[in-house]
Amino acid sequence: MxxxxxxxxxxxxxxxxxxxxxxxxxxxxxxxVAMLDGYLTAVALQPRTPPPAEWMRWVLDGDEGRxxxxxxxxxxxxxxxxxxxxxxxxxxxxxxWFDPLIFETEDEDDIQGAVYPWVAGFALGxxxxxxxxxxxxxxxxxxxxxxxxxxxxxxxxxxxxxLLEAIEGIEPAQSLEEAVEVLVAHSLLLADVSRPQASKPxxxxxxxxxxxxxxxxxxxxKRRASGPPRGSR
Length: 233
What we know:
Layout: H1 7-22, H2 33-44, H3 52-60, H4 75-93, E1 103-104, H5 111-128, H6 138-149, H7 161-168, H8 176-194, E2 225-226
Parallel strand pairs: 1-2
């Protein structure tokens, strides 16, 4: 169940999950919790959700997806990650708002620095399953991917000329709150490509692209963890 990822319990779950990730033995390079959240969003956007054995290996080793050494118990990490994945899956299926796990930086003006880990994790999840989300129509993926990948370093996209051109035409977010809106709105635009709905559930009004986005009660990006994520090696 996803109840452990409610706002009231989120801090303790985040801390517990990061501690578990920090304990993954070298030479594996586990994701930190911010990257993991973006990664799981990409997993939830796959046309068919990969089985845990396939997506978990990239959680434990974001570099190469290597298997953990014999005797290492990854079940506690898998359990907490699965709960978050179920929550994201439900929000995406219903086209509803979800709170990306974004860490504020010491520099309040460093919007890209705050959002980058989440987007980098998303990119890993998108690329890890090339026949899934990234196997959808390139033209349909272009706009929503550009909205997300605008927060990456252009060097990360050096071979994606069309995507870079689309990013150049995007007006940068003026605040972290606006950047969070962009992440959610464009993730849901991707859902329309990879997980199309025959008909929209009655009464569901999810976020729309900036400029025509439905308002979220309490304001966008209200819940964000403070301080930099631990666990970078």
